[in-house]
Amino acid sequence: MTEISQQQLDEIYAFAVQLGKDAGQMLMDAARRRMQGNGATTSVDYVEKENSVDLVTKTDNDVEAFIHNAVSKKYPDHKFIGEETYSAGASRDYLVDAAPTWIVDPLDGTVNFTHLFPMFCVSIAFAIDGVPVIGVINAPFLHQTFSSCRGKGAWLNETQRLPLIQNPVPALPANAPSGCTFACEWGKDRRDTPEGNMVRKIDSFMNMAAERKGRGGKGGMVHGVRSLGSATMDLAYTAMGSIDIWWEGGCWEWDVAAGIAILEEAGGLITTANPPADFETADIPPVKLGSRLYLAIRPAGDTPDETARQSQGRVVREVWKRVQELSYSRPGA
Amino acid sequence: MTEISQQQLDEIYAFAVQLGKDAGQMLMDAARRRMQGNGATTSVDYVEKENSVDLVTKTDNDVEAFIHNAVSKKYPDHKFIGEETYSAGASRDYLVDAAPTWIVDPLDGTVNFTHLFPMFCVSIAFAIDGVPVIGVINAPFLHQTFSSCRGKGAWLNETQRLPLIQNPVPALPANAPSGCTFACEWGKDRRDTPEGNMVRKIDSFMNMAAERKGRGGKGGMVHGVRSLGSATMDLAYTAMGSIDIWWEGGCWEWDVAAGIAILEEAGGLITTANPPADFETADIPPVKLGSRLYLAIRPAGDTPDETARQSQGRVVREVWKRVQELSYSRPGA
Fold this sequence. Notes:
Number of domains of chain A: 2
Order of helices and strands of chain A: HEEHEHEHEEEEEEHEHEHEEH
Oligomer: homodimer
Structural class of chain A: alpha+beta
Radius of gyration of chain A: 19 Å
Pfam families (chains A, B): Inositol_P
Cofactor (chains A, B): Mg(2+)
CATH topology of the largest domain in chain A: Fructose-1,6-Bisphosphatase, Chain A, domain 1
Number of strands of chain A: 14
Strand order of the largest sheet of chain A: 3-4-5-6-7-8-9
EC number (chains A, B): 3.1.3.25
Strand content of chain A: 15-25%
Family (chains A, B): Belongs to the inositol monophosphatase superfamily.
C-alpha cells in the first residue's frame, strides 16, 4: 500500500480542483474562439483516428499537455496517464498499477465539443493502489464542476453536496427499472451485424425501454432513456442522482476514473456491464477500472425493507436480466 | 392578418423575456426546495396521467398559473394556450388560430425535472396568424435562456447570437447525415409491436446510426446520437447549431412553439417528420405547428455549390430516406 497522509491527500485534492478549473477555462476559451469565427468553413480542425466519429482535436492535446506539465512540476514522483499520450504511445495495455497515478481525459465528449454541444468536460482523477480516490470533472459550458476526495463527500460547484437530494436520499423505485432514468450511449462501433456492439446495445436498450409485458417479458418500462455523448457526464449525473442507471461498454479508464471516484463517494455503486451466467445470485463484483464495461447505479436511501446497497444490487440484477453481453477487449486489465 | 406594430412587438418581446426569467426562477426555486429536503421518501409529489412516464407536477400548474395571470393582466385581449389548462380541458382539438396567442409549456422535460436531470425548462411563445414570432426558453439549472423575436435574431442569454458559430456559419456536411449530430427521443409510447411508435422510432434511429453499408444501404453513420428528454431543449440546441438534425413525433405545440420561433429566426429549417411518398422530389412543406411530427435542421452556411436552404433540403431528404412513418393523431391540426 502506498503511504499518503491525509494532509498530503487534502493538498492533492485542492491542487486537482484548481487544475480542473484552469483546464475547463482552456476548453471554454477554445470554444469561444470558435464562436468568434476564424474563417474555418465547416468545423474545428481535427485529425480522424479510427473513423469519422473518433476525433482528436488540437484542444485535447493542448489541455493534456497543460495538465501533464502542471502535475509533473508539482508531483514529479507521481505517474501520469492521459488519453492523448496513451493514444500516441505504442502499448494498448492497461497501465494503472499501485503507484500514485493521475488519470486524465483532457476533453471528454470530443464529438460534442466539435459541434459545441454543451456536454463536454475535462476529467481528472488521482488513484492510489489502482483505486481513484480523488475526482474532478469540469463542464465549463454548463457551469458545472464536480469534485470528490475519499472521506470528504462529493460536490457540485464545491457547495452542493451530491446526490442533489439529501434529506433523505430518495430510495430506488420498488419496481425498478420502471421509474428509473436510464443513460446509455450508441458509441463508435456501428457495425450492422448481430455480433456487433451497436446491435447488442440497441437490443438491450429496447428491453430496458419497452412496456413490461413486451420483449418476451424483458420489458423494463424505464422512466426515460437519455444519451449525452459523454461517459464522464453520464457518471457525474449518476452521482447527482439525476440518472438512476448508466450502462455502457467501450470507454476507457480516463473516461471513467474521476466519475467513479465521485459516484462512489456520493454513495453510488459501479460494477460490470456484462451479466454473469448466474446473474440472479452472483456476487456483484467491484468495478474493474480498465475493463471498458460499466454499470452504475445512483446513490440511494435505505428503506425499512432494504439497505441502500441491497436496493442497488437489486437494480443491478434487473439490468443484467435485460442486457446482452458486450464485446470490448483490453490487454492487461 | 392581425395588425401588431413593430413597437408593440418589441414591448411584447421584452415582456416575454422577463416572464421567462421569472418562470425559470420559479422552476429553480422548486428544484432547490427538493434538494433541501422535505421528508419525501422517493420523489416529488405527482399525479400520474396516462402511465408512469407521463407526469404532471404541482410545479407545472403553479408556473402556468403565474404566466397565465401575468399575460391576462398585461394583454387581456390575447389568447392563451398552456399545456396544463389544455390537458385539464375537454377538447383535444388544435386550438391555435390567427389571433395573437401565447403558447406556453410551464415545464418541459417533466420526467427530467422529477429526477433533477438538468434538461428542464419553461417555454413561452407568442404567435400571430398561427405562426410563432417570439420565443423564450429558460433552462435555469443550465443557466441557459434562449430568445428570439422576428427580425431581431435569436440569442443565448441575450448576448450570444445563434447559431453559436457565426463567421461564417458552418456548412452542413457534404455526406450528411454522416458528420451530423442526431437528436431523437424514445417517447412515452412503449408498445412492443411493429405498428407501435417505439419500434418505428428505434428502427429509424438504427438506420441513422449504422455504418453506411449497413441496414440494407440505409446506414447513415451519424456522428452521434443524443437524447435529452426535452423536445424544447432539442430545438434550442438545434438553433445553437449543436444538434444538426432533430427528428421527433408525439410532442405538442407548446413543446415546440418557442423552439420553432428561435430555430427559424436563427436560420434553421423545420418541416414534418413523416416522409412523403415521393420524398426525393417532393416540396419540403413548412412545419404544421400542431402536427405532432417534426424534423428540424440547424442553421447552415452557404457554399459555392449550394445555398444554405438547398443544403438543409438535402439533409431533410437524407433523413426521410431513413425513417419510418410515425403514427400520432391530432384532431383539427
